[in-house]
Amino acid sequence: MSTFSWMELFPTRLSFAIFIAYILLFVGQGILVTASQKADNQYDYNIITVVLLTEILKLIVSSLFYCKDNSPKSLVNNIIENRKVLGLYFVPALLYCFYNNLAFVNLSVFDPTTYYLLLQLRVVVTGILFQVIFSKTLSKKQWLSLLILTFGCMLKQVNFTDQEKKSLSFDIIGVNGIFILLQIFCSCLAGVYNEYLLKKQGADVNIFIQNVFMYLDSIVCNVVLLGVRGHLTTAFTYENIFKVFHYKVLLVMFNNAAIGIVTSFFLKTLNSILKTFASALELVLTALLSYAFFSIPIYLNTVLAIATVMYAVYLYSQNPVSNTTKQASRQSDEIALIKTEQV
What we know:
343 residues; 18 helices; mainly alpha; 0% strand
């Protein structure tokens, strides 16, 4: 009989702390982006410029973390020696570029709770990509937990009373539906492919070097996107920069930068499947915080969704996906010793 195992789900206290930080930062991002909007739900600043400056901030932080224990010359040498991995990072960098910009677009259309609800459609997509890229077959229990999780998230939108009149089916029709589906695809493929680089192709590369690769490529992608949209010459005018340095926009940027750093540690220590459960819990926490701070009612559907998601997390924890790095495989004896010391 399977038993609940926190040690298997979260091997170390650090991994659990990363899991919690990941959830809190993403919940905060939805709230902060919404707070930075004008009265008509549009933005007074160039969102691509904000994403670009955020990537530059992430690059600076990652470089400083690496140079804390290594020389700047070592950083440059690592970039040159691992230029092949640097090239491979253009794939997730481009996908995250689209994802980050689409987040602003979709949050101008959907409220934070509905936005996170729609993103839960990536759960099954991530499971499929995980199987294809890592050649791992999810067990029946794992698939069942994913399906229950998806069902729980969709319960949030079921109207059990006459108090809620909004219909999700009308919200996702047309261009808005295409944008949210595109963001889901970018999120799934980028997350799983990034984990593939962290644990396979770039397993022997320092994690901060990998972050530098990601953000260097992301900066290039966002500059290209600015050029394609014809905003390259106007994005850094005094007027636009002044708007970007509003305190609400700065909070969005710093929070997003923290998300990027924490996500890399998340994928290094955990996996993309557990990442989808963190995203589901974001929905729950967003609903609760919306009630606490904005007095948005929690109806029966919200309660049922919370209960269903909690059960799905419990079910998954009994048989979590295990995906160790190449380095871990080569040092199985050392890992076994570490696990023994953790018990």
